[in-house]
Structure formats: C-alpha cells, structure tokens
Amino acid sequence: MRKVCVAVALALLVGGCSAGGVAAPKQSTPTTSAPVPTVAEGPAQRLPRFPPAAAPPTLPTPSSTAQVQRFIAAVFNDAQQQWNRVFTDAGLTYQPARLVLFTSAVHTGCGTQSAKVGPFYCPADHGVYLDVSFFEQMARQFGVRGDFAQAYVVAHEVGHHIQVLTGVTAQVAHLSQSMPEAANALSVRTELQADCYAGVWAHSTYQRGLLEPGDIEEALHAAAVVGDDFQQRAATGTVQPENWTHGSSAQRQQWFTTGYQTGDPARCDTFTAPAQH
pTM above the 0.85 mark? Predict the structure, then answer.
C-alpha cells in the first residue's frame, strides 16, 4: 500500500466485542435456518459515496512494533476522517471513536477482555481495541501478511462504529434479545456489513492513489482466514453453519469486495440480502 504500509490482518474473530481491479468472489450471503428480522438502516441509507480527498495522507511504513502502532493509529485516523466527511455531506453528525492499543488484557465498557478475542469494537465506550501481537499471530499461524491485511482489520472495527452511529447496533441488540433464535444470523449480517464498510474505505484509498498491486488480495486473504468455516475447519475439521457468528470466508470476501468496488455505503445492506449457504 503506497505510503500506507502495514498488514491489517483480520482478527481470528474480527469484531470480538461488537458486544480497483479485483474480481468479486461468487455471491454468498448470510446463511441461517431461522427467519431473520428486518433491520432498518436509517441514516445509513442517506450516506453518500466518499468525496474525493484533497490530498493523500502520509502514513508510516512499519518495521518495528512502535511503527506498527503508529501505522494502525494513522489508518484509524484516516478512516475516521473519511467517514466524517461522508456524514457531513449527508447532513449528519459524526461522533469520533477512540483507539486503544493494549497488551494481554484491557478494561473496557464491555468488560475486561483478553487479547485472545482479537481486535474488537465496544459499543458501550465507542472504543476500537487492538493488541498488535495479533498480527504476528496471524502471520505465524495462517500466513496472513501484507500492509492492507492490517488496514482491513482496523477499517472493519471502524465499520462497527458506523453501525452504532446509524442505529443498526441498537436494533440488532433488541432483535437478538426478542428473537434469540435469530441472534447468530443477525450477528453474521452485522459482521458482513462491517466488512462492506471496510471495503468502502478501501475504495477511498484506491481513489487517492494509495493502493499498490496485491493490496486488495492481502485483505481478501485475511477475510478468508477469519471466515467461520475456515476457523471451524481448522479447529475441528468440520463446518457447522448454524453456529456461525461472523460469516463464511466467501461471504466476508464478497461483502468486502462489494464495498470496495462500489465505494457506496448504501450497497452495504446485508440485512435484506437473501440467505444462502
């Protein structure tokens, strides 16, 4: 990624506490055996495409832990600046999220969390939490490397913040309580929408000339590795779609690609997409 160079490897279960030129994978949308209630996106339907940026940001190329931390902060700030402009153009107020880098464990508005959950967003305090060692683990265990893999993780978590601001998170929480049989399916669709929003931000980096060959492939590789089917197969050798909470590899790749190819937040309505295996 030109000037934006660290791998944003997606979390093993990206979003733990949320309590140009790449061919799109085959369409694959959420799967569930239970009916999924409708979630109205509200203000999200008013969000326009990202406007052209006046100038690209200058982001550090990491070669040490400290530089990785600076890169993550730079990506986080850039994503927030871009979303702020989108909200402003739509006549909406953007409330900033905050970034917390931690080691081992951290106290949050969602309770104390271990680094084992991977990067996550906490709606209670609008915080994106990330242990940098996660990226080392992803590279070592699954071969996920490259700067845009890491950027994808950060952008995905910022996507959860967008869901809070547009009211999606509150609706999903209410529906999950009233219809517990649909909770997993709603969780999948929530995570896939955050993937799509990450793709929308990636589109803005393409518009600003920040992408290099292979960047999007890095993000897609990360998306595949954090798919529920990949993780289940790696852990048990079997796949159980009824237990999915984040979506399959194909679904996560599909929705990231949708956001990237369109650059349009309105195209990220995962909640009305037909269910498929």
Answer: no
